[in-house]
Structures are given as structure tokens and as C-alpha cells.
From TrEMBL:
Biased composition annotated in UniProt, kind: Polar residues: 23-39
Protein name as annotated: Single-stranded DNA-binding protein
Ranges annotated as biased composition (Gly residues): 135-161
Subunit structure: Homotetramer.
Keywords for the protein's UniProt record, in alphabetical order: DNA recombination, DNA-binding
Region (Disordered): 17-62, 127-170
Molecular function terms from GO: DNA binding
Biased amino acid composition, Basic and acidic residues: 40-62
DNA-binding region (UniProt annotation): 66-72
PROSITE patterns hit by this protein: SSB
CDD domains membership: SSB_OBF
Pfam families, per the entry: SSB
InterPro entries reported in the protein's UniProt record: NA-bd_OB-fold, Primosome_PriB/ssb, ssDNA-bd
Gene behind this protein: ssb
Organism, scientific name: Gluconobacter cadivus
Length: 170
């Protein structure tokens, strides 16, 4: 295989409100933790019924993974800053990046992040909780018809509304 692919797709919930910082040149950087969860029924045997028969017991299990998301895309960063709040469900498309940093004590650390870069990646709000507490309906419209914010003509239920069904089939 001549090439390689570094693409991450996540659907999860924000662990806290986005943190917005600015570089010295004025570019916006938005970051937040994103939780993805997997649930399943774990089969455990060993329980005996009233007549002594062996019964299978199912226990509900859940595993949550936390991902650090960093947005360098100006348009997606604006959407994240305006509309994302703790608990919101989002679709994220980006790439994995690991960076090395040194703390104040001189100890080296590595951090792996899901990065939405300047001209790549996507951020889509997918839950129906659009009221962000200040009366704003949470809509975003940049003139397109997709549900994304990657600068390729996306929108999210902007003014005038779309006839999109709020129920996402996944």
C-alpha cells in the first residue's frame, strides 16, 4: 500500500464546555473532552433457579472512553464556541495527533488528540437540544445544505429552517 490514512470519526457527548484560546496571531483554538460509550449485556452463569436448574444472568456493562478534541478550523471553532455545551451530542471527523510537551518540573509528557485542522475535518451537532439557555435556537447557517461546518457548504437548521428529521438513524 503506497499511502496511509489517519481519520477518526467519533459520535459522543461533551464532557465540559469548550475552552477557547487564541494564538499570538489571533487564530482561534477550541478544545474540549468528548466521551464515547459502549454498552453491552455481560452474560454470567452460576445462578441456580428454584428447581436447581442453572440460569444465565445478564449484567448491563458500560465502558466510556475520553477523547481530547482540538479545533483549529475557524468556522468549526466558531460553532463550537457558540453552540456546544457540556452534554451536547456531536459528530466529529478529524485526525489523530500525538504531541510531546514538558511540564514545569522538566518531565516529558505525550498527549494524543483528535484534531480538526484548518481545512480538514468536520463538526456536526446531532442532538435535538438546541436551546443553549439564552433563548438562541442554536442554529447555524453558512449557506449550504449539508449538516457540517467544514467550510464546504454546511448548515445546521439555519434561519428559515430545513425539513430535516431531528431523529438521527444511528
Amino acid at each position: 500500500m503506497a499511502g496511509s490514512v489517519n481519520k477518526v470519526i467519533l459520535v459522543g457527548n461533551l464532557g465540559k464546555d469548550p475552552e477557547v484560546r487564541h494564538t499570538q496571531s489571533g487564530s482561534k483554538i477550541v478544545s474540549f473532552p468528548l466521551a464515547t460509550s459502549d454498552t453491552w449485556n455481560d452474560r454470567q452463569s452460576g445462578e441456580r433457579g428454584e428447581r436447581g436448574e442453572r440460569r444465565e444472568r445478564r449484567e448491563r456493562r458500560e465502558r466510556t472512553e475520553w477523547h481530547r478534541v482540538v479545533i483549529f478550523n475557524e468556522r468549526s471553532g466558531d460553532v463550537a464556541e457558540r453552540f456546544l455545551r457540556k452534554g451536547r451530542k456531536v459528530y466529529i471527523e478529524g485526525e489523530l495527533r500525538t504531541r510531546k510537551w514538558t511540564d514545569q518540573g522538566g518531565q516529558e509528557h505525550y498527549t494524543t488528540e483528535v484534531v480538526i485542522d484548518r481545512y480538514r475535518g468536520d463538526l456536526v451537532l446531532i442532538d435535538s437540544n438546541r436551546d443553549n439557555g439564552n433563548g438562541d435556537a442554536g442554529g447555524y447557517d453558512n449557506g449550504g445544505s449539508r449538516g457540517g461546518t467544514n467550510g464546504n457548504g454546511g448548515s445546521w437548521d439555519g434561519p428559515g429552517g430545513n425539513d430535516l428529521d431531528d431523529q438521527v438513524p444511528f
